[in-house]
Amino acid sequence: MRKVRESKHRLGRECYIGLVRANFALCIKDRKWVFVERKIVDCFVEILGEVREKHSCLNWAYTFMPDHVHFILEGKCETSDLWKTVVLFKQRTGYWFSRYKKTIEWQKDFYDDIHRGDVGLRSHIEYVLDNPVRKGLVRNWQDYPYKGSLDSDLEEIMYGTRF
After folding, report:
1. pTM, whole model, 2 decimals?
2. Which residue of 27, 73, 74, 140 is most buried, as measured by CB atoms within 10 A?
3. Which CATH number do you get for residue 68?
4. Assigned domain for 4 exists
5. 109: closest CA among 85, 81, 128, 87?
6. What are the helix (H) ranges across 36-147?
7. Total domain count, the chain
């Protein structure tokens, strides 16, 4: 079996501190499906809420795909830390896996994309929400059950005049 190389971050940790916004994708090792039960997703959304609050971040959108998760975080103040938020999320959910889904674990790293200014926020949110559509799981993003936002109204963003 060929071993897949996991990505390494190309940016310094300082790039994730302060009033910065980024997309993140965290993948399950060996592409095992786990996010197909409402109770698991709800538990992980709760953990996301706790860690984003601890590190003073906003969550613009999230989508839990069967074998990975996408979310957009933004720092609310100069001391916000997106990196620590994601690492703490992986630690707490990794502990949950070790207790309740012993054969499931995260890949070691994660993918990210730092946003440049306010331009493109809506397109980044569309990308996160349309992931299940691109994978053929649903016809439109509204039909997918495991998506949402902890800090914004997705319908207003997608169909309103806000962005």
Report:
1. 0.89
2. 73
3. 3.30.70.1290
4. no
5. 87
6. 38-54, 82-100, 121-134
7. 1
Return d(Cα 107, Cα 31) in angstroms, integer.
Answer: 9
State residue 68 phi and psi, 5-degree precision: -165, 170
Q: Name every residue whose Cβ is closer than 8 Å to that of residue 126 and which is 6 or more positions away in sequence.
A: 158
Q: In this predicted structure, what is the pLDDT of residue 117?
A: 66
Read off the tokens for 130: 């349309």
Residue 44: pLDDT over 50 = yes
Task: Judge whether 146 lies within some domain.
Answer: yes
pLDDT for the residue numbered 4? 47
Query: Which string of DSSP letters, residue by residue, matches 16-35?
Result: GBSS-EEEEEEEBGGG---T
Average pLDDT of the chain, as a whole number = 91
Sheet holding 147-148, edge to edge: 111-114, 21-27, 68-75, 57-65, 147-148
Kind and range of the H or E element at 159? helix 154-159
* pLDDT of 119: 61
pLDDT at 55: 97
Q: Note the pLDDT of residue 10.
A: 64
**Considering just the CA atoms, what is the radius of gyration of the chain in Å?**
15
